[in-house]
Amino acid sequence: MSRIRLAGATRAAIVIGALALFPFLVGQQWVQIGVLTLMYAGLATAWNLVGGYAGYVSLGHVAFFGVGAYAVAVAFTRWFSIGGGYRPFYVLPLIGIGVALVSVPIGWIAFRTRAATFAIVTLTLLFVVQQLAFNLHSLTQGSLGILLPQPSFPNSEYEQPFYYAMLGLLVLGLLVSRWVATSKLGLTLFAIRDDEDRARGLGERVTLAKLMAFALSTGLAGMIGAVWAYHLGQIYPQFAVDPLITIGMVLMVYLGGKGSLWGPVLGALILVPAQQELAYDYGSSELYLIAYAGVFLAVMLVMPRGILPSLTEQWRRRSARSRPTRPSQRAEEPATS
Amino acid sequence: MHLFVQACILGLLTGGVYALMASGLTLAFGIMRVINVAQGALIVLGAFLSYTLFTRFQIDPFVGVFVIAPAMFVLGVCLQLAFLRVLREGEREELSLLVTWAIALGIEGVLSYVYDTTYRSTNTGYANRSWDVGGFLFPEVRVFAFALSIGIIALLYVVLARTRFGRSVRATVQNPVSARLLGVDAARVSAIGFGLSAATAAAAGAVFGIVFSFNPGSHYDLISRLLTIIVLGGLGSLGGAVLAALFMGTAEAVFQVEISPTWSPLTFFVLLIAILLVRPQGLFGVAARGSA
Amino acid sequence: MSALLEASALRKRFGGVVAVDDCTFSVASGTVTGLIGPNGSGKTTVFNLVTGYVGADGGAVTFDGVHIRRPSPALLARRGLIRTFQQARIFPQLTLVENLVLALPQPWWGFGRASVGREERLRAEHLLDEFGLLAHADVAAGELSYGQQKLLEFAATLMSRPKLVLLDEPTAGVNPVVVERITSHVRRLNEQGLTFLVVEHDMNVVMSLCDPVIVLDGGATIAEGKPHEVQRDPAVLDAYLGE
Predict the structure, then answer these.
(1) What domain range includes position B132?
(2) Given an 8 Å threshold on Cβ–Cβ distance, is B231 in contact with A120?
(3) Residue C30: left (phi > 0), alpha (psi -120 to 50), or beta?
(4) CA atoms within 13 A on the CB side of A108
């Protein structure tokens, strides 16, 4: 393995290792925050595949999160029992594939539009799914919500299985992202981001690339939604398909660095604990919303490119100044902004 | 059949109000290429202000508009100067979505704080009266609302077509670079344009508050419909937005009556998808060559 | 010499304006054919029609003996016809090597492969070297000067070893040094057997580089022949100087 790849893999191992050890070091309420953090980290990473790599800002991703949530809820209240409590986790791959397949025709329609229109179309998708959740009483019980069976995990370690499930999904998301970024699929996506018409003119399989990225992204989001639903124990349409979740994952990607590998994770690691802190301090939802809006605006206006890209840029400039003769060595993540 | 025509009447009247709301959105997009997700929240804000004027000071909503609209014009200008001006040209379209969403959340937060989350409605005395014309009911309030909406849209049209400011706006919409070269002050046009957009939201809000019940969270439902309308009409086309609004309003009303009330909100989205399949640029939009 | 590209009776109108009106010409294999005409003569539209960027209202395009019913850039690229743009279009955030590798057609099952394979990289570096850009191989294309970007775009057209390259005003917006480099590359590649169709405004370049030269005016072909003949053709003089 080249030196750079080894360094990158080591960094990854350290971070993942630290995250894996975390539950052993802290109390349950912290592990619970950890579950939420990893959930957003995974969602942000999944969103990044489409929003960051291809440049298509989707505002409706939580729709697929919600579909995954309802899938597991319906499955385990109607058809299956949770057994020892681990069955829902085993079913995750099926949910992921199912959501991914369902998303393809939707993506096909949505990708016929560009930029702002695409964002609006995906946003309306969010509301459509929410409406469906409210109206399909026979399936979703509408506004009554669904109560999921509670697993009999021991109290002192109740959060752990969910934590590791989310961590596993995050690692999966990172592996998928890395694979995409270094493959021809990724190259095509980056080209689409730069100049889609030119990419198509050169003969690149633009639609196929977009759909593949979309399927991977939504499949991940669906699986994460399933774990979240199981963890929460009860889901309602307005919370399973909540615009605030979409805006949260988008904000985290922008904060950490859209289009980079670790940016979304960084964004989540910063914002989720901060968000929890705000909710704790301000309690009542009104001021919380205002504070959230404030953070949001600050990130968008001050650092729209995100932390990681800004840091990488500074590092590159500094090293370019000290080594004027040769261009800097090829970075580990090619073509990241 | 009677029911169908009645539905069409109601739908058209409602569509007129949607048209007013959507025109503000279109204006913002046309001038600045900004998708103002906060338009829904601004409308709700207008509704609350109108409600307060009515319940506290007994000022009729249709009169209150003359107070609220200028106030929100100023608010709009301030918002544009504070948050939208700083966005760079290339990323403005993309970031504006998120920035205005943040503004919307902020407005929702403030409204929740001041008013709490119970549903309100501006219950004027004539709110439930209707005129009977040829066996069909024309609710007074909705007719006034429709008249006000069409009136403001007509006023907007006159401003755009006849005044110097309007010419600057049209020039900027068609070709921002040339407009600037010809001396149009893009900053001023943008700020005033956004202010106008917010002012139309105020008027629409006053009307909205009489006809529907609302709470701070209502802006999501509103903005989703408005966005659907302007995409259907074609981004940037005022005429398209108006037509799409009338069409959607009527379609939803008919659907509600003929097929099912619970599923009727979905009509908007179904229509949107259907049109997008055939014409991704909407009815009157220009086919996108490259993003933005 | 056989005709590599044939356009017959092409027609295109935009609203009320007839941009291309019954235009017929052919590009012989192995030549550097010039396409000139005064402003508004329809050169750019013809280019766009032939390369599939705009749909024709009538007429036919035949490439390499095959009638192309619905020209599209991707289809023509696969068949060996590549074009450049007046304003150099490259992928600014991608490196030079990546820009070149993207110009290679890929089968759909190739998505899983590494973004830049060994062979592809070697070929890209070889081309970059020929164009004097090798030192910047891993620099983002957006950081190049405009002249370098034009050269990059030119190099990209060669990745897939095309049969015909259409250059859209290759010398527009660049300094004389770059102009010289571009024209010498065209000559070199043409000697190796590559056919070119060049739209150009710079008469010096056209006279020294192209043979034959096709002249358009009012959306139709008005003259065709060696550069000097065309230069003296009364119809051509009339088109450029008249009205």
Answers:
(1) 21-217
(2) yes
(3) left
(4) 8
